[in-house]
Amino acid sequence: MHERFLYPKILEKWILKSIGHKWRDYKCYLKGRHYSDDANITDLHNNCPEDVVQDQWISLVNFWRSDEGQERSTKSKLSHKKAKTKPIHTSGTKSHARIYEELKKSLQRSPTRTELYLECHQHKKEANVTERNKEIVAQQDNLEMNLDEDPVAQVLGKDQYGRVRGFGLGVKPSDLSEPSGSGYRNGLNMTTSEETTSMYLIRQLKEQMETLQKCVVRQDKTIKKLKRKLSNNESFGSSDLNFDEYSSDERSTEGEHDNDDDE
């Protein structure tokens, strides 16, 4: 991943978790569109989607047909049925981090986990608020509670190990030094000044490289044009050199490099 993409190292865990979620979602999509428990396995092998490698598709189909795959599928279906009784996520494509910041501005303080959870899991109309959400609202008097005792934990149960319900992807209990979420707020500032500076310098170098490459391409075209005229015994003037085609940015870049050479 490092060889193909440029990103701050501190974001790596979040990126890998996000990729994992999208990978599982895509496998679910493939199974729904291209797989059936009743179909012949040979037909399934031959029904490989266009954007999937054949060998990988065959391995995936074989896993779905295996005892382990069938058992995992049964457990997932049961979990899905239980999930239907929980409050529905209502924030659409807006991330928890954005909602957190919007709440902080409107409340003029850091929102609690309960406030953030309710903002993400209930509609504005009272008619659509679930019974569980009403329980959370009723228990929301104390704003300073730890994660094991706050209203969300009391109504929905304690968080799984290494996860914090309601704060979005990648947030751990250790990221929340206070119930008010100051640790999470600090965690949102994911890029350090050193990493930001490095990214800026790398972007500058890439832009300079692109400018120089354009210069080389144009110079190559000019040289080929001159050679062609010489081979045909044609006369040529200064206009054939295409000096005017160079942009001011390219000339300034060349000037900077000339100054560097002089130094």
Automatic annotation (TrEMBL):
**Which segments show compositional bias classed as Basic residues?**
75-87
Sequence segments annotated as region (Disordered) = 71-95, 227-263
The UniProt entry, under InterPro entries, shows: Probable_transposase_24
Q: Where is the composition biased (Polar residues)?
A: 232-241
A Pfam match: Transposase_24
Recorded protein name is: Transposase
What organism does this protein naturally occur in? Saponaria officinalis
